[in-house]
């Protein structure tokens, strides 16, 4: 339907905005952007793991998934997260909303890094 085609275009536009805003904060993306509904965010340069990010954002009801990225030493401790845009687009989010989503994700990582300073590098200690 025309409505679904427009929805699909909006999902992709939202993902592109999310990717660009994350890059503007200095974050590394696996493909330097996106051409679909997924942003694969490499957190290794921050010193924060994908598992910790997933755990942290779960606590505030933000769903993203830990995801292995090229160069990870272990699939058990992935260095990235996968962030999709379909669910929020379905709720009516547009590009300007995804700029705010990126800001919130950035703030979450900053909080996570401060928590990690106190808890240590291990995920089990971070989650405690």
From TrEMBL:
One Pfam family of this chain: SHMT
Chain segments annotated as transmembrane: none
InterPro entries for this protein: PyrdxlP-dep_Trfase (IPR015424), PyrdxlP-dep_Trfase_small (IPR015422), Ser_HO-MeTrfase-like (IPR049943), SHMT-like_dom (IPR039429)
Keywords on record: Pyridoxal phosphate
Required co-factors: pyridoxal 5'-phosphate
Serine hydroxymethyltransferase-like domain sequence ranges: 1-104
Molecular-function annotations in GO: glycine hydroxymethyltransferase activity; pyridoxal phosphate binding
One GO cellular component term noted in the UniProt record for this chain: mitochondrion
Protein name (Swiss-Prot/TrEMBL): Serine hydroxymethyltransferase-like domain-containing protein
Upper taxonomic lineage: Eukaryota, Cryptophyceae, Pyrenomonadales, Geminigeraceae, Guillardia
């Amino acid at each position: 339907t025309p409505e679904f085609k427009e929805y699909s275009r909006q999902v992709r536009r939202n993902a592109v905005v999310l990717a660009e805003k994350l890059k503007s904060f200095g974050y590394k993306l696996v493909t330097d952007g996106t051409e679909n509904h997924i942003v694969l965010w490499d957190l290794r340069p921050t010193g924060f793991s994908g598992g910790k990010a997933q755990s942290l954002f779960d606590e505030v009801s933000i769903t993203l998934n830990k995801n292995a990225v090229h160069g990870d030493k272990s699939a058990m401790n992935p260095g990235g997260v996968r962030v999709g845009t379909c669910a929020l687009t379905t709720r009516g989010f547009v590009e300007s909303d995804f700029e705010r989503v990126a800001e919130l994700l950035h703030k979450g990582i900053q909080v996570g890094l401060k928590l990690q300073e106190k808890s240590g590098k291990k995920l089990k200690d971070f989650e405690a």
